[in-house]
């Protein structure tokens, strides 16, 4: 089973994976994908800038670092690509633990 690396934010909840991808068309500015493309890259990196031009969500420059600016629970939040990726990986850990029936303590990424 493949889980899409999407994280979406609404007024009520945070969605990860299929749920996030399913609502991307009506909430594009708060649905983040391709976060791994910005990990380790500065905001002004030419490759990062090319990608930013094609994404529907807002990416801001904060001290040279790229941050996603989203609306969640009625507040504006600024999140790093690493934070978004962490949310996806945490969800994957939960899915794996449910499937195997015990706690996962080690993983290779």
From TrEMBL:
Domain of life: Eukaryota
MF terms in GO: ATP binding; ATP-dependent protein folding chaperone
Native source species: Paraceradocus gibber
The family this protein is said to belong to: Belongs to the heat shock protein 70 family.
SUPFAM superfamilies to which the protein is assigned, alphabetical: Actin-like ATPase domain
Protein's UniProt name: Heat shock protein 70kDa C
Gene Ontology biological process terms in this record: response to stress
Keyword annotations of the record: ATP-binding, Nucleotide-binding, Stress response
Record Pfam families: HSP70 (PF00012)
């Amino acid at each position: 089973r493949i889980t899409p690396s999407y994280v979406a934010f609404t007024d009520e909840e945070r969605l990860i994976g299929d749920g996030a991808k399913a609502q991307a068309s009506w909430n594009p500015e708060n649905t983040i994908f391709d976060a791994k493309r910005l990990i380790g890259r500065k905001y002004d990196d030419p490759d990062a800038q090319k990608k930013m031009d094609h994404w529907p969500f807002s990416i801001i420059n904060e001290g040279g670092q790229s941050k996603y600016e989203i609306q969640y629970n009625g507040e504006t939040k600024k999140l790093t690509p690493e934070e978004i990726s962490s949310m996806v990986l945490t969800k994957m850990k939960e899915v794996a633990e449910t499937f195997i029936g015990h706690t996962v303590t080690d993983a290779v990424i």
